[in-house]
Structure formats: C-alpha cells, structure tokens
Design goal:
By secondary structure, the chain is of the alpha/beta class. It has 17 helices and 17 strands. α3 runs parallel beside α6. The two termini are 39 Å apart.
C-alpha cells in the first residue's frame, strides 16, 4: 500500500500540493486526473523521489520512503512517459533489459523475460528487438516503454500521460492492453492523465485534483454517479455514466422494497394487498426473504376458494436478475421478451428489488436529460 500523509510541495511562495492525503491499494490501477497545474505529475514524481516534499510523509508498505535508498526505490518502480522515454542510441533489447543487467540477473533469464514481455504486447521479438527506437511507430514505442517498466518485475508502475500523443485508435488499443496486463500481473499502477474517458476506461480508482487539492478519490462508478461538487460534476461531464453503461447496475434504478407476501397469505388477502398498493404482481417470499414464487391478478381470478393460500396460487418466477448486474445484462435478458416485473436478487438470492417497464423507460431516458449538480441536485 502507498500512503500519502499530509503531503505538501511548495516552490518558494507557490504551493503545488497542499497537504494531500490518500491511500493507494496494492494491485489497483489508480488514475490521477485534473486540469493542468493541479499537481498530478508532481505527485507522481514525489513517489519515486525525483523531487522531495516540503512537508508530510510518503510510505510504501509502512516504510517512509525518505529512509529508503533512492536506487533501490526506483529499481522497484517502473516509470513510463510519453513516447516511452526510450534511449534512441540503444536497441529495443538494450532498452528493455537495462535495469535487469544492472541488477546482474542471469543472461538466459533476462532473454526469456524479454521475449515473454514482447509477446505479451503482440510484438514479434525477431522483428523488433534489434531495431532502434526511431524505427518504430508511436504505438510500438509506448508498448516497449510499458514492458521496459515491467521488465525488472517492479511492484509499482508509474505512468505519466503515456498515451496522450497517440491517435485515438492506437490509444484505445493500448488502454485495453494496459488493463489486460495489469489484470494478469497484479501490479500497483499510478497513471496520470487529463482525459476523463481514459480514466473511466482503465481505472480501479480515480483521484480528481484541482489547485493542489484532492476533490474526490473513489471508483469511477461512484464519481460518475455521485460527484463531490460542481467542479467534479463539470469535469466528469454530464451523463458520462452513459458512455460506460456496464457501470450502471440494476441496484441503481430498481424499485426497492417491493410489495411481498408470505406463502400462507390467503387469496382474498393477496387481492387486497394488490389493490392497496396499485400493483398487478405480488412476490411471494419466505421468512428469510428468499423468493419462492409470483402471483398475478390473472392467477387470482382463476381461483374461487377465498381461503386458498399464496403457496397454492403462485408460480415459479420465470426470470430474475442480480442487483449487481449491469443495465447491458438486463437489456440482453429482455431483448427477446417483454420486461414485466423482473424480481431482483442479491448474491445470497434474497429478494431486494423489482424492475418494471416504467422504471426501465425512465432510467434509459435520463441520458437525454440535463444533469443537475451541486445545489440544484440537493433541492
């Protein structure tokens, strides 16, 4: 874990970072984002001691980096910048292997690792290892820059706007590759960008900064749904959540606390409960909120015995969905069938909500409505 505790950085009278604190979890990809001059790149440089804080502490796994040898610290951190930061007079192989050779690792081990990494980013070792950086495209250089940062198996990788100079197609491809690499290798990555679309796509957590302060530090999902203030809402952009619909979960828009009954409730009581609540479907649950059946008005009309209990009237639900399913999964479920009162369960299979046609239509329409933020949203 990386911890920044009340870290301040000043240059004479200018405060770049003003007593910021945060915890970066192991194995997560954390994005630092904000307008120019907000302090995101300064934060990155503080982590590997390229610059020193004016005050405050930075700890890695509980150890203050001030007491850590600079060389040892930096060799345990990969660093990626625009165009990969490769040495133009060295071959691709030499660029990738430079730290491993300084660490005096075995030549065969180094060679095998280089070939493995090249294949991970879909670059043929035979075609590229003996070429020089000026002979490669921007996207290829960034791939090499990333795997060079990973070559010595660091626990932490710092990336300073590595994809900002690339064309959109290459950029998207490299974002996908980075997410896949991070998932496979489990590295702690801190990524600086000014592109909110990029942040939402790749991040486990996003830290939004402004004027040396942290405004919000949370998952992309939470920030998009619940921006901390008007600036964050404006920076994120209105209705951005709809550009990442996989982050819109059923629990975000389901009807909570749907009307239910127990299996012992009589037919007449079931009818009364439907009428009182202006509903046409009743969900039958046991004492632990497990969904055991569904009753609708048509089923009630077919039974003449007023004492018949719900357990005898109900049918098994033909569909249900989990509350952590995305709206995409929901739409896939109903694409060939009409949405008609789908029960929502948690992962313990307890009933927690209900989806109706009107709820889905209302939810889908939100992407076309202006977003209210800050004081307006609180009214």
């Amino acid at each position: 874990m990386i911890q920044l505790q009340n870290v301040t950085k000043k240059y004479k009278e200018h405060t770049v970072l003003d007593s910021i604190s945060m915890e970066i979890k192991d194995g997560e990809l954390t994005v630092l984002i904000g307008p120019s001059g907000c302090g995101k790149t300064t934060t990155l440089k503080l982590l590997n001691k390229l610059i020193q804080p004016t005050s405050g502490e930075i700890l890695i796994d509980g150890e203050n980096i001030e007491s850590t040898d600079d060389v040892r610290l930096r060799r345990n951190m990969g660093y990626v910048i625009q165009q990969g930061g490769l040495f133009p007079h060295m071959t691709i192989r030499e660029n990738i292997e430079i730290i491993e050779k300084l660490e005096k690792k075995q030549p065969k081990e180094i060679e095998n690792n280089t070939i493995r990494l090249m294949k991970m980013v879909d670059l043929n070792p035979d075609d590229y290892l003996d070429r020089y950086p000026p002979e490669l495209s921007g996207g290829q250089l960034q791939r090499i820059g990333v795997i060079r940062a990973l070559a010595n198996d660091p626990s932490i990788v710092l990336l300073d706007e590595p994809f900002s100079a690339l064309d959109p197609v290459t950029k998207r491809a490299l974002q996908d590759e980075l997410v896949e690499l991070q998932s496979k290798m489990g590295k702690t990555m801190i990524f600086v960008t000014h592109d909110m679309d990029e942040a939402v796509k790749i991040a486990d957590r996003v830290c939004i900064m402004r004027d040396g302060h942290i405004l919000q530090f949370d998952t992309p999902e939470v920030i998009m749904k619940h921006p901390a203030d008007d600036f964050v809402a404006s920076f994120v952009g209105p209705n951005r959540i709809w550009s990442s619909p996989e982050r819109i979960k059923v629990r975000d828009f389901m009807l909570q606390d749907p009307v239910t009954c127990g299996p012992e409730l009589s037919r007449d009581k079931c009818a009364d409960r439907m009428a009182e609540n202006h509903i046409d479907t009743l969900l039958v649950v046991d004492g632990e909120k497990n969904l055991i059946g569904v009753i609708d008005k048509q089923m009630l009309s077919l039974v003449t015995d007023p004492a018949a209990c719900a357990e005898k009237l109900m049918k098994e639900p033909d569909r249900a969905i989990y509350d952590d399913s995305s709206i995409i999964e929901l739409l896939s479920m109903i694409q060939d069938k009409e949405l008609n009162n789908i029960p929502v369960l948690n992962r313990e299979n307890r009933l927690v909500g209900l989806l109706t046609n009107s709820i889905l239509v209302s939810t889908l329409s939100r992407q076309y409505l202006p977003r209210h933020t800050g004081k307006e949203a609180a009214k």
